[in-house]
Structures are given as structure tokens and as C-alpha cells.
Amino acid sequence: MNYKVGFKTLVAPLPGDTLLEDGAIVDISDWTNPKIELEVAVHVGQGLCVAIELADVDFPPDDPDRVVAGGIYHRHWLLGPTIKGTVPFSARLGGAHTEELLDHDAIVRMVEVSIGRKLEAGEVVITGSIFPPMDATPGRWEGEVEPLGSLSVTLEGA
């Protein structure tokens, strides 16, 4: 998960045990400040896919070390199937929409510079929210990045 505190981009690993299937149901009733992010993931050496990340901003983002130590607010993530190559895309989540160009190799190089090491084939990196993190309210959320596809998650509680 990437999150900016001031002008510093923060990077933290995503635990495999927080990966959910498309269509998952998540109880957010005990979360402090739930957020949802539509992202693009890079499967190093394989391609790109759509991703959704769920976060709980449960303390102010004023201390970068504390934010990273807490996993940058990460709670869950979802991944779609991969597509190879450079692709033009459009994305939507809630009422937000954008159009961009994605290049697998360029994204891998950018992430390697950011983390200071070479990425290994098979690693998965989500590249940060396409839109600013949105307040995650109960209901069904569907994020779409064309041509990568869509994912959905239903949030309960709160």
C-alpha cells in the first residue's frame, strides 16, 4: 500500500492473509475511519490487474514511521486477473472517473526506485489509489479499470 504523508511516499508489504476473493463481504462496524481505494496491481513479469484496497485510517497520518509500522492503514485487498503489456485504461469508483495509460515495465521500474531494490518475478505490487481514498460506507462497491476488469466488495456495519 502506498500513502503520502507530507511529500514522502510510503511503501509497506501487503499480508497474504488479508487478500479477499472478488465479491467478498467485509464487516467494518468496528473500524474507526474506513476507506476504499481503487488501484492497479502489477504482477511482476506477468502483467497488470485491477485491485481494491480497504484501509482504516485509525490515527492521524502525521508520523511516517508510525504509519508504515501500522501497515499504512491496510486491512484487506482484492485482485483481478492479469493482462500483459501497455494498456490505455479508464477507471471508475463511486462517482469518480479517469483515463490514463499503464505500462507494466515503467511501473516496475518506478516501484524499484521507490523501494530501493529489484522486484522478483511473481511479486505483486499495488501502485496506490487511482483516486483519493474514498469514505467506505456500507453497501456494495464495484471498482472498474477497463480493460483490466472489475472487482466488487460488500461492506457491512458502521
Shape: globular
What's the helix-strand series?
A: EEEEEEHEEEHEEEE
Helix % is 10-25%
CATH fold name: Fumarylacetoacetate hydrolase, domain 2
Question: Please, could you describe this protein's structure?
Answer:
- This protein is mainly β and 158 residues long.
- It has a single domain (2-156), classed as Fumarylacetoacetate hydrolase, domain 2, CATH 3.90.850.10.
- It is built from 2 helices and 13 strands; from the N terminus they run ββββββαβββαββββ.
- It has helices at residues 64-69, 104-115; strands spanning 2-5, 8-11, 19-20, 24-27, 34-43, 47-56, 74-79, 86-93, 96-103, 124-129, 134-135, 139-146, 149-156.
- The strands form 3 sheets. Strands 3, 5, 6, 7, 10 and 11 form a 6-stranded mixed sheet that branches. A 5-stranded mixed sheet has the order 4-13-12-8-9.
- The longest helix is centred in the last third of the chain and has 12 residues, at 104-115.
- The radius of gyration is 15 Å and the shape is globular.
- 32% of the residues are buried.
How would you summarize what this structure contains?
With about 160 residues, the protein is mostly beta strands. About 10% of the residues lie in helices and about 50% in strands. It has a single domain (about 1-155), classed as Fumarylacetoacetate hydrolase, domain 2 (Alpha-Beta Complex).
Feature tags:
158 residues, 2 helices, 13 strands, disordered N terminus, Fumarylacetoacetate hydrolase, domain 2, five-stranded mixed β-sheet, globular, mainly beta
Please outline the helices and strands.
Layout: E1 2-5, E2 8-11, E3 19-20, E4 24-27, E5 34-43, E6 47-56, H1 64-69, E7 74-79, E8 86-93, E9 96-103, H2 104-115, E10 124-129, E11 134-135, E12 139-146, E13 149-156
